[in-house]
Amino acid sequence: MAMWQGAMDNRGFQQGSFSSFQSSSSDEDLMDIPGTAMDFSLRDDVPPLDREIEGNKSYNGGGIGSSNRIMDFLEEPIPGVGTYDDFNTIDWVREKSRDRDRHREITNKSKESTWALIHSVSDAFSGWLLMLLIGLLSGSLAGLIDISAHWMTDLKEGICTGGFWFNHEHCCWNSEHVTFEDRDKCPEWNSWSQLIINTDEGAFAYIVNYFMYVLWALLFAFLAVSLVKVFAPYACGSGIPEIKTILSGFIIRGYLGKWTLVIKTITLVLAVSSGLSLGKEGPLVHVACCCGNILCHCFNKYRKNEAKRREVLSAAAAAGVSVAFGAPIGGVLFSLEEVSYYFPLKTLWRSFFAALVAAFTLRSINPFGNSRLVLFYVEFHTPWHLFELVPFILLGIFGGLWGALFIRTNIAWCRKRKTTQLGKYPVIEVLIVTAITAILAFPNEYTRMSTSELISELFNDCGLLDSSKLCDYENRFNTSKGGELPDRPAGVGVYSAMWQLALTLILKIVITIFTFGMKIPSGLFIPSMAVGAIAGRLLGVGMEQLAYYHHDWTIFNSWCSQGADCITPGLYAMVGAAACLGGVTRMTVSLVVIMFELTGGLEYIVPLMAAAMTSKWVADALGREGIYDAHIRLNGYPFLEAKEEFAHKTLAMDVMKPRRNDPLLTVLTQDSMTVEDVETIISETTYSGFPVVVSRESQRLVGFVLRRDLIISIENARKKQDGVVSTSIIYFTEHSPPMPPYTPPTLKLRNILDLSPFTVTDLTPMEIVVDIFRKLGLRQCLVTHNGRLLGIITKKDVLKHIAQMANQDPDSILFN
Question: Which residues form the CBS domain (predicted)?
Answer without folding.
Answer: 656-720, 752-812
